[in-house]
UniProtKB/TrEMBL annotation:
Residue ranges, compositional bias (Basic residues): 1-13
Annotated spans, Disordered: 1-31
Protein name: 30S ribosomal protein THX
Source organism of this protein record: Postechiella marina
NCBIfam families linked: ribo_THX
Key words of the record: Ribonucleoprotein, Ribosomal protein
Family as reported in the entry's similarity comment: Belongs to the bacterial ribosomal protein bTHX family.
């Protein structure tokens, strides 16, 4: 259980791969784009 283990998070980081233990982080789309607004709300 360590750097050489394919199934652990540390092993995935060491190999530079992804899987169930270390999923890819997805970029979040802004809420304005989801709703379809052209301009963001401005703070007064």
């Amino acid at each position: 259980m360590g750097k050489g283990d394919k199934k652990t998070k540390r092993g995935k980081i060491n190999r530079g791969t992804f899987g169930a233990r270390r999923p890819r982080i997805k970029k979040k789309t802004p809420t304005e784009k989801k709703i379809g607004l052209k301009f963001k709300a401005q703070v007064k």
